[in-house]
Amino acid sequence: MPIEYFVVECPEERGKKAYEDVANDVLLDLDLVRIVQKIHIFVDPGVPLFVAVGTTHPAGALVRIRDAADVNVDEEGRAVLSIGNETYLAPMLEALWARYGKEHVDQPDRFSVLVTVPAGENPRGIEEIVIADPEDGLYKDLVYALQIIAPEGFKVRRQYHRAGVFYYVASEDTLPEEVVETIVAEKFEKVGVVL
């Protein structure tokens, strides 16, 4: 899915073209063009300021235990998880430890996890526990890409994301909150988002 809106705004035409090329290459190299829906980048080395705002396509549904394991109940009332997808094993164990405590989670082998659930709780309810949010990984990748695209030396940064919307602001100087809010809101309007 191609990016619907991709604009780089810069007071210098050569700088604008250079940032378009860099941004395009980075987004392609990190395979973010399928996720980013709209992006507007503003660069003014004279201020100095770099602002990127945009929207993303939905990253996918939350990953739950049922997506990575079959859940059954043994004769002792424990939840028996048969791991079908090891990709999510580590976050699954972390979620189970956080909820039930390590002393109630046992992994006898690489493809099985036994969970002793509290009395009165349905062991099959474990299927609904969220173990991964694709949005989290997407956001980390996007921030990494924007750090590469931003001018070198722009170490003062602000970043934000919520479902489907992001911004990244960088400068060499301090960034007063009211200036960031004003500029970010102005650039978001260009991609059809009102804050």
From TrEMBL:
InterPro entries: Methan_mark_17. It comes from Methanofollis formosanus. This is Methanogenesis marker 17 protein.
